[in-house]
Amino acid sequence: MGVTLEELARILGGRLDGPSPGPLVSGIASISEAMAGQVTFLTETKNVQKRHQELAKTKASGVIASENAGSLPLPSIRFPSAYHGFVKALEYFHPKDSLVPGIHPTAFVHEDAIVDPTAMIGPLAVVEAEAQIGPGARIDAQVFIGKHSRVGAASHLYPHVTLREECMIGENSIVHSGAVLGSDGFGFHSTDRGHEKIPQIGIVEIGNNVEIGANVTIDRATMGKTIVGDGTKIDNLVHLAHNVRVGRNCLIVAQVGISGSTTLEDQVTLAGQVGTAGHVTIGKGTTVAARGVVTQDVPPNQVVSGFPLKPHSEEKRIMVAMRKLPELVKAVRRIEKELASLRKPNE
């Protein structure tokens, strides 16, 4: 059973642009895949003409769009930001599974652990002594929660997450499958006899409203804390070494490696495969473009890239110049030949 576009606009907080009450809709899909009875989504993109051409071919019954999207070939629900409406529609048509509180009979929960009665502990999960699981938290199958660790209210740990001893996750945070939080930092004292392990006695502290992708590894501090601040989002396959401090509302994209004792101030963005040396600070609001290598401190509010790191505009000019290198080499060789021929009569 669907709702009319007019009803959907009211539910989502948008404005219907088209005949009222509009067709019935019961789902959402991409422009190319949407069928009658579904709404689609017009991205906010510079290539408006291309998106409008795609929209003219869609079978969707309606489209979610921004207020400044112009005239569209089918009824639309308008928002100041199309992405905001898109998120609201996804949440409406695909609500999260309701939490069923309780402890699965195959889970192991130590008698000294504290599990809120509104939390859920899934099959074969392990919750060790004096760990704390907050209200409405969801611990899925085969998650490991170490001694003295804490999971805050309404946080969700997907299957096979490991939260080692004494580490903490705040409220409303999400940790995806395979992530390991609190593994030993890579600390060794090298001698002629070999590499002596340095005990890693610190912890990991994850803030509120953080999302951590699949197979992320965050090492515990040697001493003190490895910290991920409130609102930060970390993509899959990222590594944070011991004593790293990540500020609030940072974005860290896949395959980033952050070396020990590095500090990211608030609202830093690290694009894919960025690497850092240890003990550097990246200033507030700075973006490091993909594959950039940070070997020294970066001031706030910069856009940088490359190795060695430089302003992104300069790096782009260098890349353009490098594409011309084969032609330049040919030109230099031609000039060398011409100069050589000019010298011969005088020899």
Fill in the keyword field for this structure.
Udp-n-acetylmuramoylalanyl-d-glutamate--2,6- Diaminopimelate Ligase, Chain: A, domain 1; 3 domains; nine-stranded parallel β-sheet; 347 residues; UDP N-Acetylglucosamine Acyltransferase, domain 1; 40 strands; 5 helices; twelve-stranded mixed β-sheet; alpha/beta
Shape summary: flat
Q: What is the domain total for the residues?
A: 3
Q: N-to-C terminal Cα separation, in Å?
A: 94 Å
Task: Give the CATH superfamily of the largest domain.
Answer: Hexapeptide repeat proteins
Strand content is: 25-35%
What is the CATH first-level class name of the largest domain? Answer: Mainly Beta
User: Roughly what percent helix?
Assistant: 10-25%
CATH architecture of the largest domain: 3 Solenoid
Structural class assignment: alpha/beta
Could you give a short account of the major beta sheet?
12 strands, mixed
Number of beta-strand segments: 40
Low-pLDDT runs: none
- Number of helical regions: 5
Major sheet: order of its strands?
A: 8-11-14-17-20-25-28-31-34-37-39-40
CATH fold-type name of the largest domain: UDP N-Acetylglucosamine Acyltransferase, domain 1
Mean pLDDT: 94
Radius of gyration: 27 Å
What's the layout of helices and strands?
Layout: E1 3-4, H1 5-12, E2 15-17, E3 24-25, E4 27-28, E5 38-41, H2 48-57, E6 62-66, E7 76-79, H3 82-93, E8 102-103, E9 108-109, E10 114-115, E11 120-121, E12 126-127, E13 132-133, E14 138-139, E15 144-145, E16 150-151, E17 156-157, E18 162-163, E19 168-169, E20 174-175, E21 180-183, E22 188-191, E23 194-197, E24 203-206, E25 211-212, E26 217-219, E27 225-228, E28 233-234, E29 239-240, E30 245-246, E31 251-252, E32 257-258, E33 263-264, E34 269-270, E35 275-276, E36 281-282, E37 287-288, E38 293-294, E39 303-305, E40 310-311, H4 312-323, H5 325-343
Parallel strand pairs: 4-5, 5-6, 6-7, 8-11, 9-12, 10-13, 11-14, 12-15, 13-16, 14-17, 15-18, 16-19, 17-20, 18-21, 19-24, 20-25, 21-26, 24-27, 25-28, 26-29, 27-30, 28-31, 29-32, 30-33, 31-34, 33-36, 34-37, 35-38, 37-39
Antiparallel strand pairs: 1-3, 2-7, 22-23, 39-40
